[in-house]
Design goal:
It is built from eight helices and eleven strands. The strands form three sheets. The chain has a six-stranded mixed beta sheet, with helices on one face. It has helices at 19-23, 44-47, 77-85, 138-154, 172-175, 202-214, 245-258, 264-267; strands at 30-31, 38-39, 90-95, 104-108, 117-119, 125-128, 159-161, 185-186, 218-220, 227-231, 235-239. The protein has 277 residues and is α+β, with helices and mostly antiparallel strands.
């Protein structure tokens, strides 16, 4: 569902040929001036312990408190967790409350380069749930991204939005109209990044087609809320529930223990995991 590039040369780059010949960077304290290399001595000043001026230190910023179920209390808690943890491409529409402008926007799974929010050229606000930076409270992060996108739109800006997740912000529960949530919609690709009224160019269209082929096929299991069928190296049914975690795993353990060795439920592969729900 949202990797870093290959790392730079590590300790293995040090060899008999010298650091400069391997990476183009000079070795620390090695001086070459058309003469045989000499070692420059380190003065006493470089070995002295540096003392930072307290006046130049940044003010202490308390961490965002951890929340085990960040979307608890929202009408579509299970769907939001699924968009965060399981589903590659989906959208869900909601609206801020009257105190925050009654602004309609879309929750989405992912935005370009893992950004938390975007203002499309048509003015539509998108808030991503799969992001590259997170605090200990995902509701806080999404709330901050939404408020930043609203401010950017009011200023006439568009494009992706960046935020500092370490800064305090209102949570989704504090700013949303809880009666405004629509049903989640699974998407075939990330075309929701673009203004639907504008025609995309051929290069973008080809990129979307390639991306569509790479997305893991995901479908909801009919009649089972929170269950999704996914085709990866094997077929999986991924299931989300808002039941108490301890009671759920206890019941599952009892159920599996009571199953007959030849039954389907006993022979199935179970991969339990406690996620953001």
């Amino acid at each position: 569902m949202p990797g870093l590039g290959p790392g730079e040369a590590g300790a293995g780059a040090w060899g008999v040929a010298g650091w400069g010949e391997r990476t183009g960077s000079p070795s620390p304290h090695l001086v070459v001036c058309g003469k045989p290399a000499t070692i420059t001595p380190m003065g006493k000043a470089s070995r002295r312990k540096k003392v930072t001026d307290p006046a130049k230190l940044k003010a202490y910023r308390p961490p965002i408190p951890f929340v085990a179920r960040p979307y608890e209390g929202l009408p579509k808690e299970i769907e939001l967790v699924a968009m965060r943890e399981l589903i590659p491409a989906a959208t869900l529409t909601a609206r801020t409350d009257a105190d925050h402008g009654a602004v309609e926007f879309d929750f989405v799974t992912l935005l370009p380069e893992g950004h938390p929010a975007m203002v499309r050229p048509d003015g539509r606000i998108l808030v991503a749930l799969q992001t590259r930076s997170n605090s200990a409270d995902l509701s806080h992060d999404a709330g901050a991204a939404l408020l930043a996108a609203i401010a950017a739109k009011e200023a006439g800006d568009e494009g992706v939005i960046s935020i500092d997740v370490r800064e305090p912000s209102e949570r989704l529960q504090d700013i949303l109209d809880l009666d405004s949530f629509t049903d989640m919609k699974l998407e075939e690709d990330f075309s929701f990044w673009f203004d639907p009224a504008e025609e995309i160019d051929d290069q973008t269209r080809r990129a979307l087609e390639q991306n569509r082929d790479e997305i893991i096929p995901t479908e909801p299991v009919p009649g089972v809320p929170g269950a999704y069928w996914c085709e990866m190296n094997r077929n999986f049914v991924r299931f989300l529930t808002d039941n108490d975690e301890a009671k759920l795993f206890d019941a599952l353990a009892r159920w599996l223990r009571a199953a007959r060795p030849t039954s389907v439920r006993a022979r199935a592969t179970w991969v339990p995991s406690a996620r953001a729900a």
